[in-house]
Design goal:
The complex is a heterodimer. Helix content of chain A is 37%, strand content 17%. Chain A has helices at residues 5-10, 12-15, 21-30, 42-52, 85-96, 114-118, 131-144, 170-173, 186-189, 193-212, 258-266; strands spanning 32-36, 56-60, 101-105, 123-126, 148-154, 157-163, 221-226, 231-236. The termini of chain A are far apart. Chain B has a single domain, classed as Ubiquitin-like (UB roll), CATH 3.10.20.30. Chain B has one helix at 19-25; strands at 2-5, 8-11, 17-18, 34-38, 41-42, 52-53, 58-63. In chain B, the strands form two sheets. A five-stranded mixed sheet of chain B has the order 2-1-7-4-5, with no helix packed on it. Chain B is globular and about 35 Å long. The chains are: A alpha/beta, B mainly beta.
């Protein structure tokens, strides 16, 4: 694949970086990144991945745009309220960079569909807001040997790390989802829009660096950000031998639908 | 004793504390909402009661954080 004159001009400000260059730009154009959740984290991630020229972008979301989303989910505009998020996001991507191929999944992820979705991509961004989904993405990426970026936000705080096969996973820190109701959600506890923006941009940056094989990734490190006190801290962690997924005696051999499990128990 | 808690050095009157006691002192209401890392190693939850911290130990409380978009 040769870069066209239009592509050389469009991406000139990053092609001049020694970490990118013409070869790196070709890698980006040939890459496939999946963003699960076109919300607070997914919005800025999608915008930057598209402008950087990531050739194929997958978006998974089964929701419609709600007016309460607009305070932080910057890929969606006022006129998009009630529109499916995947279509709203796809339209914006096409306006920023019409050369990007967008694959949309108008669905929620679950144990029966996630593996075949993540299998199609080189890097996955977790932009979901709930623990069943976060654990599902971690486990699916572990089983499919796919790298992903974890992102979690609450109020003025956020945390993110990057998983690469053979490195520490989300379950090395948190072995299972918290009991229901212990950890408040953004709709209960609130979230400042810029926090979602900052985390989503870091996640996109990890995807881009992974594709370029440039610099250091946030593997075996959890970045903690507190915007209220403007504190950035990196906490080292390592592969946990007691991890129920990737440890020495793994208990988890297959994907778990935590929500479904609860429903099944009720029935 | 001196402990590094979430990156900050703090002084404690007691010379030994269990993780559970430390969580209470640090006003963590529910231990279920936090993972504890002691000197770089994640500690199993069932050991919070029986594990003691000592002078110069480094402890991280890592909270669960959701956020983003509802997908499930």
């Amino acid at each position: 694949m040769r870069l066209t004159n239009e592509q050389i001009e469009r991406y000139s400000r990053q092609i001049i970086l020694k970490e990118v260059g013409g070869k790196g730009q070709e890698k980006l154009l040939n890459s496939k990144v999946l963003v699960i959740g076109a919300g607070g984290l997914g919005s800025p991630a999608l915008l930057y991945l598209a402008s950087a020229g990531v050739g194929t972008i997958g978006i998974v979301d089964g929701d419609k745009v709600d007016i309460t989303n607009l305070q932080r989910q910057i890929i969606h505009f006022t006129e998009d309220v009630n529109k499916e998020k995947i279509y709203s996001a796809k339209e914006k991507i096409a306006k920023i960079n019409p050369h990007v191929r967008v694959i949309t999944y108008n669905t929620k992820v679950n144990a029966s569909n996630i593996r075949e979705i993540v299998r199609e991509f080189d890097f996955i961004i977790d932009g979901t807001d709930n623990f069943p989904a976060k654990f599902l993405i971690n486990d699916a990426c572990f089983f499919e040997k796919k790298p992903f970026s974890h992102g979690g936000i609450l109020r003025f705080q956020g945390q993110t790390f990057t998983y690469l096969p053979e490195n520490a996973c989300y379950r090395c820190i948190f072995d299972s989802p918290p009991p229901k109701g212990v950890v408040p959600t953004c709709s209960e506890a609130g979230i400042i829009g810029v926090m979602a923006g900052l985390l989503g941009v870091i996640q996109a940056s990890e995807a881009i660096k992974y594709i370029l094989s440039a610099g250091q990734l946030l593997t075996n490190k959890l970045l903690f950000v507190d915007l209220l006190n403007i504190e950035f801290r990196t906490i080292n962690f390592k592969k946990n031998k007691n991890c129920p997924l990737c440890g020495e005696n793994p208990k988890i051999k297959d994907l778990i639908d935590y929500e479904t499990e609860i429903c099944d128990l009720k029935n | 004793m001196k402990l590094t808690v979430n990156g900050k050095i703090e002084s404690f009157e007691k010379e030994s504390l269990t993780i559970e006691e430390l969580l209470k002192l640090k006003k963590v209401k529910m231990p279920e909402m936090v993972t504890v890392e002691l000197n770089g190693t994640i500690l199993e939850r069932e050991k919070f009661k029986t594990t003691y911290v000592k002078d110069n130990d480094s402890i991280e409380f890592i909270y669960y954080m959701g956020g983003g978009s509802p997908i499930i």
